[in-house]
Amino acid sequence: MKMLSQSISFQPKTIIKQLPWQVNQRVTVSMLLVLIIFSLIGWLYLQQASIITASSMQVDNLRQEIELTHQRNNELRLEIATYQSIVYVEKRAMNMGFVPTEPTHIRYLVLSDYPYLPPHDSEVVSQPPSHEELLSTAPN
Question: How many CB atoms lie within 10 A of CB 134?
Fold first, then answer.
């Protein structure tokens, strides 16, 4: 038995020579160029899709924030309306020690130097009482 002394080489140059078909350099460059172009188009598409997705998420987050702000504003309007109701104000005044008064217990403070502004033409208001009228009706 005879041994064949044939060496196997894994260098690219040797492998290409051993391929059963010939590779034309122009065809190889063209295929490589097409592959690079398709890869670039795919990368650009993925990049654009990523940007659109991120923007979409931001818009959704902002819409959600706007909705929460509207909801909070409505809650605050309800709270303000509750605090302005006459029932709440009377109850709070009673808790603070205020009591309802009778018209006979009201005293007016007269300031002689206080400027009096006449009402607008559209308002119908009687003349304020004079200083003497206030003093004569005030309880001693």
Answer: 14
Residue 100's nearest CA partner among 82, 86, 110 is: 86
- Global pTM reads 0.45
Please tell me the distance from the alpha carbon of residue 109 to that of residue 138, in angstroms, as a whole number: 10
What's the chain's Rg over C-alpha atoms?
Answer: 47
Question: Which tokens hold the place of 86?
Answer: 């006459």
- DSSP per-residue letters across 30-78: HHHHHHHHHHHHHHHHHHHHHHHHHHHHHHHHHHHHHHHHHHHHHHHHH
For residue range 73-116, list pLDDT tens digits in order.
Answer: 999 999 999 999 999 999 999 999 998 888 888 888 888 788 77
